[in-house]
């Protein structure tokens, strides 16, 4: 019997079995078996290319958000709730086998939300489709790490380790260190702040470890040795991450309260549609997007049609978005908003938007 047949047999048996106290154990066993076979489906096959199918989803919209989490935490339930795309959800693990995109429409922006297969410990080493899932996460603007609120803290620290191990840094900014390898001249070391975690000696030792003997190093921040290593190695991804604890309908109010107070965390229940609005607000904040409305002289702006840019975008960026030729012909803009000094403020192409 092939794996697919075994899976369908078990699925049938689960459907046949009545749910009650007496069958609880049997059903649990069936689900574990089902999960095992589905995990086998996820193993990269030897013949096929390691890239796998369904993971090359085109970027679209104004931003991309990836859903990362253990199996059965509710990722697909969430996608189906927040977008018009339906992603199969079920009570057995590894229901989702590919990357399924949906779109969240919020404040006039189209946010691409990606549902992904569940990942487990060892994902970074290629367990299941862990590598592909993590590769997709790297391309996101924000990661939502979905956690099962009934499972406490374990899932979070395990997944953080997986992502750390492949160079993804969650909720950290790029260390403010200037680093430039040179052809000769030895190592020149400087800092603009007092360093409490690194010294010239340590920096040299680390560089020698990486066989770098000529370089210019300038610490503009009191960084740790790990952060310095990140700068040397490069290719790190600094990613905003929202920890979303789902299934709070299953835990006590005290526990909900405790989780909700953790940094970068939101508590929700997809099942009972609890706190989803607040999650969207937080997501918007983490995406750091801003809405720009254009208007004709003497008319009110059309608030249904926004230009969506990253916070800090300049008037020139707006011009480019409207038409490629506009920036070169453009003289000045009148800008209204909470970040302008005057309303309106007259500004050239470099005027920035913070609001
Ligand atoms: N009690 C409760 N159950 C939920 C909630 N959200 C989802 N579930 C249930 O959790 C189970 C798993 O949901 P899925 O959406 O399939 O989870 P997933 O993370 O996509 O799982 P995989 O694709 O297998 O990795 C389903 O039985 C859902 O009905 C919730 O807020 N509360
Ligand atoms: K599932
Ligand atoms: Mg799923």
UniProtKB/TrEMBL annotation:
Keywords: GTP-binding, Nucleotide-binding. Gene3D superfamilies: 3.10.20.30, 6.10.140.1070. This is Developmentally-regulated GTP-binding protein 2. PROSITE patterns: G_OBG (PS51710), GTP1_OBG (PS00905), TGS (PS51880). Interacts with RWDD1; this interaction confers protection to polyubiquitination and proteolytic degradation. Interacts with JMJD7; this interaction is direct. SUPFAM superfamilies: P-loop containing nucleoside triphosphate hydrolases, TGS-like. Catalyzes the conversion of GTP to GDP through hydrolysis of the gamma-phosphate bond in GTP. PANTHER family: DEVELOPMENTALLY-REGULATED GTP-BINDING PROTEIN 2 (PTHR43127). It holds the Pfam family MMR_HSR1_Xtn. GO terms for molecular function: GTP binding; GTPase activity. CDD domains: DRG (cd01896).
């Amino acid at each position: 019997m092939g794996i697919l047949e075994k899976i369908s047999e078990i699925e049938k048996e689960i459907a046949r079995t009545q749910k009650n106290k007496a069958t609880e154990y049997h059903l649990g066993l069936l689900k574990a078996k089902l999960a095992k076979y589905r995990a086998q489906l996820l193993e990269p096959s030897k013949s096929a290319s390691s890239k796998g199918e369904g993971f090359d989803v085109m970027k679209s919209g104004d931003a991309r958000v990836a859903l990362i989490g253990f199996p059965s935490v509710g990722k697909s339930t969430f996608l189906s709730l927040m977008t018009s795309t339906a992603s199969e959800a079920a009570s057995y693990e590894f229901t989702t086998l590919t990357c399924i995109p949906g779109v969240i429409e919020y404040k006039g922006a189209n946010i691409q939300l990606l549902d992904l297969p569940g990942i487990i410990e060892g994902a970074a080493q290629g367990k299941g489709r862990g590598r592909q899932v993590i590769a997709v996460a790297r391309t996101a603007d924000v990661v939502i790490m979905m956690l099962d609120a009934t499972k406490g803290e374990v899932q979070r620290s395990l997944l953080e380790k997986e992502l750390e191990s492949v160079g993804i840094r969650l909720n950290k900014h790029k260390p403010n260190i200037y680093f430039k390898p040179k052809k000769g001249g030895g190592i020149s070391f400087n800092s603009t702040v007092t360093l409490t975690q690194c010294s010239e000696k340590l920096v040299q030792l680390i560089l020698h470890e990486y066989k770098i003997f000529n370089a210019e190093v300038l610490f503009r921040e009191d960084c740790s040795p790990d952060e310095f290593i990140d700068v040397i190695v490069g290719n790190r991804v600094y990613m905003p991450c929202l920890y979303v604890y789902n299934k709070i309908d299953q835990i006590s109010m005290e526990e909900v309260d405790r989780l909700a107070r953790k940094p970068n965390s939101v508590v929700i229940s997809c099942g009972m549609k609890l706190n989803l609005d607040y999650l969207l607000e937080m997501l918007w904040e983490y995406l750091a997007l801003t809405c720009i409305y254009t208007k004709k002289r003497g008319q009110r702006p059309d608030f249904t049609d926004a230009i969506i840019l990253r916070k800090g975008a300049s008037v020139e960026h707006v011009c480019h978005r409207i038409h490629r030729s506009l920036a070169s012909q453009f003289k000045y803009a009148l800008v209204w908003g909470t970040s302008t000094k005057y309303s309106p403020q007259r500004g050239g192409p470099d005027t920035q938007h913070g609001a």
